Amino acid sequence: MRAGFESIPKGQLEAAACLALKPSQSLWSVQIPQAVERVYPALVSQFVLMMLATSIMSQISAEELTGVAYMIQSFTFRGFEVYLVIAGIYLVMACLLRLTLLGVAQVSFPRRRRLGTPL
After folding, report:
1. How buried is residue 69: exposed, middle or buried, by Cβ count under 10 Å (0-12/13-18/19+)?
2. How many domains does one find in the chain?
C-alpha cells in the first residue's frame, strides 16, 4: 500500500488542498481510491500465493487439502493419482480466486474499465 500512496502525483494532493478538503476527506476521496487501484494487481497475486501456501499447514497437522491427500495416499497406496487430483483442485481454486478478484476489480475500478487498461 505504501507504494500505491507514493505513486499518487503531488498535484492530486495539492488540488485536494485547493478545494479545501480536510486531510481526512483528502485521504478517503483522493488518496485511498488511487492507491488501492494501483496496488490491486499485486494484492491479487499475493492472495493467490497465500491460498497456495496453505498446503504447508499440513506439516503442522492442520486438516487441509494436502493433509487429506496424504491420508488418502497412505490408505490406497496411489500417490501419483491422488496428488494429480489435488494439483488439479489447487489449479481450479487458484483460477477461480483470480477470476473472482478480477471481477471485483471490474466493478470497483470503473476508470480502468473506461480506459481499457489491464489489471
Report:
1. buried
2. 1
Q: What is the pLDDT of residue 118?
A: 64
Extract the residue ranges of the chain whose pLDDT is less than 50. none
Amino acid code (one letter) for 27? L
Long-range own/partner contacts, residues 47-55 (CB < 8 A, 24 or more apart): 47/97, 47/101, 48/94, 48/97, 48/98, 51/93, 51/94, 51/97, 52/90, 52/94, 55/90
Residues 6+ apart with CB under 8 A from 10: none
Per the CB < 8 A criterion, the answer to whether 4 and 32 are in contact is: no
Domain extent for 56: 2-115
The size of the chain, in residues, is: 119
What pLDDT, on the 0 to 100 scale, is given for residue 81? 94
**Alpha carbons 104 and 78: distance in angstroms, whole number:** 39
